Amino acid sequence: MKRTHLSTATTLCGLCGLLLAASGCVSTTPNLDHDFGKSVSLLKAQQILNPEASRNTDPVKGIDGKAAKSGYDEYQKSYKAPAPLTPLSINIGQ
Fold first, then answer.
1. Element (H, E) at 2
2. 3-state DSSP call for residue 4?
3. Which of 16, 18, 38, 59 is found 20 to 30 A from 26 (Cα to Cα)?
4. Quick one: three-class SS letters along 30-77?
5. What angle do CA 33, 34, 40 make, to 5 degrees?
6. Residue % of the chain over a pLDDT of 70
């Protein structure tokens, strides 16, 4: 049986299609996962001003304990009983 140019072209296109389809099965995950998350970790590390801050045992200076507690209590109380709202009145033309 004699092959025609159409038959050869069809076979060649089919082979190329088969190779193209088979290349989709190749896993690229190891190459992509190798550096996955490193940029986020690097950005988080660059945003830390003082990485050794947790080892500092000096007390905070500037406010005593009584004043800090009083301020904190007033802050908490402001959410329990907020100040009443006054009605808004606008006088136009009088």
1. none
2. coil
3. 38
4. HHHHCCCCHHHHHHHHHCCCCCCHHHCCCCCCCCCHHHHHHHHHHHHH
5. 80
6. 86
Instruction: Please tell me the predicted confidence (pLDDT) of residue 22.
Output: 79
Tokens of 23: 């290349």
Query: What's the mean pLDDT when you consider all of the chain?
Result: 82
* pTM score over 0.70: no
Separation of alpha carbons 70 and 67, rounded Å: 5
**What's the number of CA atoms in the CB half-sphere (13 Å) around residue 25?**
5
Longest CA pairwise span in the chain (Å): 109
